[in-house]
Amino acid sequence: MLRFDSWLLIIGFWLLVSCGDGEPATNSQEPIVYASPVDYDITLAGNFGEPRPFHFHGGLDVKTGNVEGKDIFSIADGYVSRLTVNLYGFGNAIYVTHPDGFTSVYCHLKRFAEQYENELHRTGPKDTLSYVFPPEKFPVKSGDHIAISGNTGHSTGPHLHLELHDTETWVLRDPMIKLANIIADTVAPQAHSFMAYPMDGEGVFNGGFSKQSFGFGAGDTKVQRFTFNVQREFTAWGRVGFALWADDYSEATYNHYGVRYTQLLVDGCEVFHSDVDSIPVSCQLEVNNWGDYEHWRRTRIWYMKSFREPGMRLPILHTNFEQGVVCFSEERPYHLTYVLRDYQGNESRYHFTVRGERFPNIEARPRRQLLDSYRLYRQVTWPLHTMKH
After folding, report:
1. Which end of the chain is more exposed for a tag (fewer CB within 10 A), N or C?
2. How far is CA 69 from CA 36, 89, 145, 153, 307, in A?
């Protein structure tokens, strides 16, 4: 007879499979082809999921040469479903709903194409307007002109902010899932340093009980794949969490981006990975818990934790039973590896060794609990849905 915790895992797995990979159901009989929103080679000023105070960056920032007035085109067939005008936020924004279950949103526009501008009743620069249209009102094809780029709303310079949402749930999705083939990138993400977090009263790292950061010492390099081995050896005992300061790059610009995929291995076994492919709007504030917000306030550097803080609901984080915390319970070398990868598959690996050394008054043992199975069950079945716009 199956144990209760085994049934929980089976039910959790079934629910996870039944939810699929979060891809919206396809409503169209014909495949939807996505194209560029601009008529020149795309260079990004920002990517999806970059950590920022109190929110993740929700889309791609497409450079417009630091000027306004670039033509903006629908990235796929569909219909214009909404126009919004606001002094803040997105500024002028146009929404295009596609038949495959996605909606693309084009923000900070100078103005809309004439047929959409004619629907507005503007009174001045402080207008707050919102218009919703039925599917038959404004059908569009991929490549149709829909707007002119600008610098309206909460924007620090002219650019196009492009978002992609699940139409039904309004979950933010990475536009790279549709546009990666038209955005050049042959540069792997790079890690700068890691932070060690000894758990209070349960761990020690390099003889200290407080969090400590350590640089990898790897030189900056823009290549598709590389591996770096840290020569220094560290010591630890008990339960210790880790965090990483890292950025992604591209060959076309000086900008740096958030890292799409991060994995932490201990002796070749995964204890944590993050895949920033979708973010429920209701989880936006959790960026401050995944990242070390207190450290960011002092340094403007984000260390993203490779363990799950209590109560975190982010579905993009995946851990073992220990919630990603590493337990150094044997006097031996532990081999840790960080794997970083972007959407195009460019990859970097960072290896370092931590030697387990017994420490007075620290009892090194995993924090096993009766409800371990239930905690894993909850982790894999967090809802990916949020309030619709």
Report:
1. N
2. 17, 19, 13, 16, 44
